[in-house]
Amino acid sequence: MAPSHTLKCCKRALNWVPVLFINMVVAWSYYAYVVELCVYTIPNNAERISYLVLFHIFLAMFIWSYWKTIWSKPSSPSVAFALPRAERELYEKEQRAEVQQEILKKAARNLPVYTRTAGGAVRYCDFCQVIKPDRCHHCSTCEMCVLKMDHHCPWVNNCVGFSNYKFFILFLAYATLYCVVICVTVVQYFIKFWTKQLPDTHAKFHILFLFFVAALFFISIVSLYSYHMWLVGKNRTTIEAFRAPFFATGPDKNGFSLGFKRNVAEVFGEQAKYWIFPVFSSPGDGHSFVTRLVHIDPEQANSVLQQNGKILMDGETNLCMVADDVPHAEGNSKEKTDGGQIVVVTVNSEP
């Protein structure tokens, strides 16, 4: 028991090494830019002040979004998705897989869960002992089920999912802009040192190395940022990009896609004034998502959420499903369309 606990502690400590490395690089870049470039190298006061103001604005946004990504605890499924005690005991005692599935299907009928495994089985986590909500996956590193899990990122030592995906996108965006600001403002002094137009001083190494490091980080980060912005436009997670979610009608990578504008709002929220700030503004609660493949009427949606203990913030709304011409195999909901147009079902938190 003791060796196992020691190994876990060592593993957790090692997981912070990439985060420590990033913070050390940022700390050095701050010293190289502020002290070696602005204080010792730039002769013009107006240029120095303008560079410092611009640099600190993007550094502050970068650090803010980075630490929000790190310290935002991943959201896990609510107790409503756990098997009731009697059903859990039956499930654990039962050895036949088909009977276990019948127990899970019975429990899942009272939940807004519409995705299945590739074999059509109800998605259940034996570690957390919960029926997995749509887009939820178990992270072996965090040892928990994470709502709308995208991936586990070693550079933030945290799972990127429903609670912090917006912060992660902003972290990549501001890290890219931070590198751009450094490269654009340092390049003229990089050239002067490289061509020996400036005398060799202790600042030379820092200026040359700062430009190379910023350029290399820019190339790596901008590619990752572009990929995730493409995922946002498609309303997919990284997991869904590699393995399409399974619905009653089969696998569909575009099952959660609602059009570019709505897809962006699913991550950043409806109010554009909050988009550039690392404050949580994503809609919903992470347990259920709008999908074009399942339809459900408002009364049934409200009943499902109330039965399963969904607790929403005051005044918050939860977009559950979108009416479509593809019926759900297990549902008995009525089709809600108006002139062939898709109708969004909105469930208010007000009783």
From TrEMBL:
<feature type="domain" description="Palmitoyltransferase DHHC">
    <location>
        <begin position="123"/>
        <end position="242"/>
    </location>
</feature>
<keyword id="KW-1133">Transmembrane helix</keyword>
<keyword id="KW-0808">Transferase</keyword>
<feature type="transmembrane region" description="Helical">
    <location>
        <begin position="49"/>
        <end position="67"/>
    </location>
</feature>
<dbReference type="InterPro" id="IPR039859">
    <property type="entry name" value="PFA4/ZDH16/20/ERF2-like"/>
</dbReference>
<comment type="similarity">
    <text>Belongs to the DHHC palmitoyltransferase family.</text>
</comment>
<feature type="transmembrane region" description="Helical">
    <location>
        <begin position="167"/>
        <end position="191"/>
    </location>
</feature>
<dbReference type="GO" id="GO:0019706">
    <property type="term" value="F:protein-cysteine S-palmitoyltransferase activity"/>
</dbReference>
<feature type="transmembrane region" description="Helical">
    <location>
        <begin position="20"/>
        <end position="43"/>
    </location>
</feature>
<dbReference type="GO" id="GO:0016020">
    <property type="term" value="C:membrane"/>
</dbReference>
<keyword id="KW-0812">Transmembrane</keyword>
<feature type="transmembrane region" description="Helical">
    <location>
        <begin position="203"/>
        <end position="227"/>
    </location>
</feature>
<protein>
    <recommendedName>
        <fullName>Palmitoyltransferase</fullName>
        <ecNumber>2.3.1.225</ecNumber>
    </recommendedName>
</protein>
<dbReference type="Pfam" id="PF01529">
    <property type="entry name" value="DHHC"/>
</dbReference>
<keyword id="KW-0012">Acyltransferase</keyword>
<dbReference type="InterPro" id="IPR001594">
    <property type="entry name" value="Palmitoyltrfase_DHHC"/>
</dbReference>
<keyword id="KW-0472">Membrane</keyword>
